[in-house]
Amino acid sequence: MITAEIRSVVRTLAAQGQSLREISRLLQLSRNTVRRILRGREPPAEATRPAAAPHREQLEPLFERARGNVVRVQQLLDEQGQPVAYSTLTRWVREAELRAPPQRVGQYSPAPGSEAQFDSSPHRVTLGERRLSAQCAALVLAYSRRLYMQYYPRFTRLEAKHFLLEAARFMDGTCPLCVIDNSSVIVAGGAGAEALIAPEMAAFARALGFRFVAHRLNHPDRKGRIERPFYWIETNFLPGRTFKDFEDLNRQALEWCTQIANQKTKRALGMSPEAAYVIEKPHLQALPTALPPVYEVLERTVDLMGFVSVQTNRYSVPERLIGKPVSVYLYPSELQIIYRATLIATHPRLLGRRDAKHYVLPEHHLPMPRSRQRQPVAEEALLRGRHPTLDRYLAALTDRRPGRAVRALRRLLEIQRTYPTEPFLAALEQALTFGLFDLGRLERLVLKHVAGDFFALNNHPEESPTDTDDPSSPGEDPDARTDDLQGDGDA
Q1: Which of these, 13, 91, 105, 207, is most buried using a 10 Å CB contact count?
Q2: CB under 8 Å to 278, separation ≥6 — which residues?
Q3: Residue 405: strand, helix, or coil
Q4: Is the Cβ–Cβ distance between 142 and 115 less than 8 Å?
Q5: How is the chain split into domains, by residue range?
């Protein structure tokens, strides 16, 4: 509370020509407070009097009811008709000692080569024109703070093993302990000192000469060496840089670690991590002669289009293996397809892509024709080449019939052999003009031409020399005339 004496002194000093800065320094007041006093806007003493704190017996039940949430305590007080500012309420809580005071943070100083710390964090990155989420994996030596990081589109145990192997190569050695959080990528169950490391991850760590140690829950300071660099990565490495793909992203990440992160002088060390690494390097465990391979075996069945699906992407397989089971060996940068202990195909992995992207090797899938090649039949060979009109009709007929059109060609050959050539060709010309490919109607069309050319019927009685009014007159036998007509037809 600003007393009347202090306000009077402020006005007196201002009248003497003292600056705001000097008045603020002499009276230990903020400049805004000095300005309000000089403007005459300082609230009266009664309004600035702090609210009376309730007894601990009144505040403690509300604090327990709200489960330690001061915002909820403020809402409960509002419901009781006692509105209180949040800052005032937090002061009451501190004075009543309802919360345990913060504990002093200790200092952890590991010996050279004794410990490494490993963690991963999701970051938003831009690859080309795509904005996506990628997992940043990082490992640091606890003594020298030497950092190594890489990015992955997803982070499973396969990616974790690949990263730890590359980090061991980068550090040219390992530490006996690797401190981690309680991530399910490495921890199969439990937490902290009771954490059960996944058997495959524990075996992989033994092959490189170290073991995992999980810190207790809600104690990330135990691996603060690796927690702090993630903020630096997000605010220094990612801004202002462009990346084509994950390969380009990881190449630039390695350059940033080598040229910037590990060259910057650390205040706690008094030197750069690269200089401190020279001290720590003799204390690291040497890498084994044979490094453990990093891969994952998947069982797949080749689909009807000749692909196997891995992580929503599809990779080609020879057509002869359609419907058969194959083994897929998934490596960090490629995958191999094995069938009966024989390597069938090797594909680069489609990292950062999803939704059934195809990767096809040309020798796996031959070009598929729009329709099967139609093999000519014997009837077509007998018909083709006799006349241009017949050849044109054959081509049009086979194009309109499914398959090889064997029945249609047999019927056409039968019509060609049954009737004379000239009526047959005339009927074909007429059928082509009108697009007629019904062979039954084509045969009736041929019969029309045959009837007109070979049956000279007299439709006018006056033109017949033997015409009489009586069809049964002497000298003409009706049955004989019918026989003659039939004979001409046969001829």
Answers
A1: 13
A2: none
A3: coil
A4: yes
A5: 4-95, 115-283, 296-359, 378-445
